[in-house]
UniProtKB/TrEMBL annotation:
Record's keyword annotation contains Lipoprotein: no
PANTHER family per record: 4-HYDROXYBENZOYL-COA THIOESTERASE FAMILY MEMBER, NOVEL THIOESTERASE SUPERFAMILY DOMAIN AND SAPOSIN A-TYPE DOMAIN CONTAINING PROTEIN (0610012H03RIK)
The name this protein goes by in its record: 4-hydroxybenzoyl-CoA thioesterase
Source species of the chain: Pseudoalteromonas carrageenovora IAM 12662
Xref: InterPro entries: 4-hydroxybenzoyl-CoA_TE, HotDog_dom_sf, YbgC/YbaW
Source species, domain of life: Bacteria
Protein family: Belongs to the 4-hydroxybenzoyl-CoA thioesterase family.
Keywords: Hydrolase
Pfam family, one: 4HBT_2
Entry coiled-coil feature ranges: none
Length: 132
């Protein structure tokens, strides 16, 4: 995985146990995917304006360890092809100080046109050449 986005845990992202709440990881992963798309020249917001919506259809997360306030970490993103109309992002959350993997994820999606029918526009299709 070569694309990475850096983060730092903020206090309010943690629960009563003093660890990052499990739901917050969804936000980290989503932000990293959007940054990946933007870095590849795909404007997520413009696609939506053009009535092309990228949608998540499945999220699989394997929580390995917990992040705590102040932890610096990165989310790595690797695009993979699932099928003709489905793509996925392999993502990992890694704590920087020891390079420990905190979470592995596979987020599967597709895009739909204004009629709600799945299709992949060329700018998305070209990103996902490697099959799982």
């Amino acid at each position: 995985m070569t694309f990475k986005v850096d983060f730092k845990v903020r206090d309010y992202e943690c629960d009563l146990q003093g660890i990052v709440n499990n739901s917050v990881y969804f936000n980290y992963l989503e932000h990293a995917r959007h940054e990946f798309l933007y870095a590849k020249g795909v404007d997520f917001a413009q696609l939506a304006k053009d009535k092309i919506n990228l949608v998540v259809i499945r999220s699989e997360m394997d929580y390995k360890h917990s992040l705590i306030p102040g932890d610096e970490f990165y989310v790595a993103v690797e695009p993979v092809r699932i099928s003709r109309l489905k793509f996925a992002f392999k993502q990992i959350v890694v704590r920087k100080r020891d390079e420990k993997v905190m979470l592995n994820a596979l987020v599967t999606g597709t895009s739909v046109n204004e009629k709600g029918r799945p299709f992949l526009p060329p700018e998305i299709d070209n990103l996902f050449k490697t099959e799982i």
